[in-house]
Structures are given as C-alpha cells and as structure tokens.
Design brief:
With 373 residues, this protein is of the alpha/beta class. It contains 15 helices and 15 strands. The strands form 5 sheets. Strands 3-2-1-9-10-13 form a 6-stranded mixed beta sheet, covered by helices on one side. 50% of the residues are buried.
Length: 373
C-alpha cells in the first residue's frame, strides 16, 4: 500500500507557530493535501499529547505518528519518531531532569549531547535522527563533522534533508550510506501551503503506526518530494545581514565577514555538503526526489498576487481540489489533460515543475530563494 507522509510538524505550543495548529485543523488539512500519515509534532508536551487523545482512532483517515523535535547541546536539532504517546511520555520523563522547558515549549531545549538523547530514545524503543541535517544554525553538519561526533556509538535511524537540500546533497556522503532520507515540511501551521510542502511517499503493509515506522527505518521510501534546494533560505553561502552571496573561496578570503556591511557570512548547505561528499559514490538505491512547491504558491505566481491566501488564489485552488481531488495528486500524479480542464495556465506550470523547466534564484544567509516560470 502506497501512502504520503509528513513526519515533522509543530503544535501551537512551539515558538512561532499558529494558534490554529490544532489536531482537528491538521487532520482536515491532511485530507485536502493528500497525506495519509502525519507526525503529531511536539509529542513530549503533556497538553499536546492530551489534545490528540480524542482524535486517535483505528478507523480514521490519517494515521498519526507521535513525533517530536528537541534541541540538544550545541543547538543541534533532533527528530524523534515514537510508537505511541505512552512512549512519548516515558521519553519526556527521562529528559525532564535535563530540560527547563520540556513541559512548556513544544520543541524543548535539552542539556544533553546527541548521544545522550539518542541513548534515552533507543532505550525506550523509539527512533531518532538529525532534523534538517545540513542547515547552518541548528543542523548536525553545521556543528559537527560527522554523525559519530554527534551521536557517538548510538545508531542513527534516519536523516532529514531539510528545505535547503534534496537527495543529491547527501547521497555522496559516505557515512550516510544505508540511512533513509526523509523530506518533511517542519510546518508551524495547518495552512495548505505549509503542511506537506515536503513529504515522503512510502510503501507500507497497512496504515498502522508499526507499519509506517518499519517502512521509514527499513528504507521502504519510494519517493521524496519537496522544494528545489535553491528555494531554501540557507542554500548558498551568503551574508546573514544583506544576503549577498559568495563562493566558498571568497568567504574564506573575507574571513567570513561581509565586506559590504560587516555582517557574518554563513556557509550554505550546498557548499557544506560538497565538503563532506565523495565524488562518484552515488547509489542507485536511493528513491527519486520530486521537486515541487505548494499548489497555492504556483497559483500565486501565475496570478501575480501578494499571497497564496488571497481570495483570488483560494478560489482557483478550491476549483482544482473540488474537481480533481487532493493537492499531492494534482502536483505529482494527474496528467496534463485533467489539470488543464480546470485551468490551462496552472496545468502548464505544474508540468514545468515536474520537468524542472523553471528558473531558480537561490536563497542564502536566511533569505528564501524564488522561482520564475
């Protein structure tokens, strides 16, 4: 059975999250988006766990996987996947002595190393891997030179690519051989252009939590989908103040200080992954990566509006959904003939994305990239 999964989101208890991020709103958005599996996000938070209890049923349309992101020593972020909310409570109890905000913040700070957190997670029977592994501020490779430097002898169960990377950025790094790559939204809102903006298509036996986790850690991922890496805000090496982009040699010559305004130059994801890569290592076993952006953002670009949430954009968005079904199918699966029945301009734009025939303007230093059709 094939399904779509977004395994990294946040709740209304996380910093900078929408107060509309409730279980009900998230599940409703999943159906529209085309997600059959959703990570709960923030499962270490006691109130958030309680809020999910009335929505966890065997006959529901969306399977909810208890998940959480934590910030460890060195500000490195880790993603945890769990079998049930009871397991989440056990892990929270084990981490509580090392955290001042585990009961208050959806993404708690834990004063332990990655190895220390992974040991607690594994002893509880759960799974862990680096969140957005290549981003400069909180990604594993932004702080450490290797998995072992962060996790010690504890195993890494998966690696999340993040919005500024795709499979090509990690597949030539020797130590990542055999580790599943995940592409998740890290959404802080149930809005349709945030939730599922990156997702995984996986092969599972059934829609049970057990089957989903076995597929993730067992490498039964059929497709990763998400942004072109250039659209991420840390893709290129750039100044964090004025966003001027530099080559790696230029940044080194300037001692990582922008000559224009004295701001810090931050190494981009592209340069960081190249530094860890070994040419010619590419494995044919990796699933394909499909580059997409949310349907609402494609409509916004074509209509020239200020936001994908304007009435004009949403009217056309709902025309597609009501006529053709969920958004992921529209973006990836349905043929041009069906798409053009609703709107030829949007249909042509979707096909351009599928073929990679767009113009990219890479982001860096904290400024998102953009695209032209």
């Amino acid at each position: 059975m094939i399904c779509n999964a977004d395994l990294h989101i946040h709740s209304l208890f996380s910093m900078a999250s929408s107060k509309n991020t409730t279980p009900e709103n998230l599940l409703n958005s999943c159906v529209i988006k085309g997600l059959e599996v959703l990570g709960s996000g923030d499962a270490l938070h006691p109130v958030w766990r309680k809020m999910w209890t009335e929505y966890i049923r065997e006959d529901q349309d969306v399977t909810v996987i208890p998940t959480a992101e934590v910030q460890a020593e060195g500000r490195v972020h880790h993603l945890i996947l769990m079998k049930n909310f009871e397991q989440a409570e056990i892990i929270a109890d084990q981490l509580r002595p090392f955290s001042k905000n585990i009961d208050k913040d959806g993404r708690p700070h834990v004063n332990l190393s990655g190895e220390g957190i992974a040991e607690i997670v594994h002893n509880a029977g759960a799974y862990i891997g680096p969140a957005h592994a290549f981003t400069p501020w909180t990604g594993l490779y932004g702080r450490f030179d290797s998995l072992h430097d962060c996790y010690g002898d504890e195993r890494v169960d998966f690696l999340e690519l993040g919005l500024s990377a795709d499979t090509s950025y990690g597949e030539n790094i020797p130590e990542l051989s055999g580790i599943s790559f995940l592409s998740n939204s890290d959404a802080h809102s149930p809005q349709l252009h945030k939730l599922g903006r990156e997702f995984n298509r996986i092969d599972i036996k059934d829609l049970s939590v057990k089957s989903v986790l076995e597929a993730v850690v067992g490498g039964k991922i059929l497709l990763n989908a998400g942004f072109f890496p250039e659209e991420g805000k840390y893709n290129r090496t750039a100044c964090t103040r004025c966003y001027t982009q530099y080559s790696l040699s230029e940044a080194e010559n300037f001692s990582w200080k922008c000559p224009h305004d004295g701001g810090s130059i931050k190494m981009g994801v592209r340069d960081r992954t190249l530094g860890h890569s070994k040419e010619g290592l590419r494995s044919e076993e990796r699933p394909p990566y499909c580059h997409i952006v949310p349907l609402g953002e494609i409509i916004q670009k074509i209509l020239g509006t200020s936001s994908p949430c304007t009435k004009k954009c949403m009217d056309l968005y709902w025309s597609f959904i009501n006529t053709l079904g969920n958004e992921i199918s529209i973006l990836i699966d349905l043929p041009y003939e069906e798409l053009s029945y609703v709107d030829v301009r949007i249909a042509e734009a979707i096909i351009k994305f599928r073929k990679g025939k767009i113009t990219l303007h890479p982001g860096g230093g904290g400024s998102y990239g953009s695209f032209d059709l």
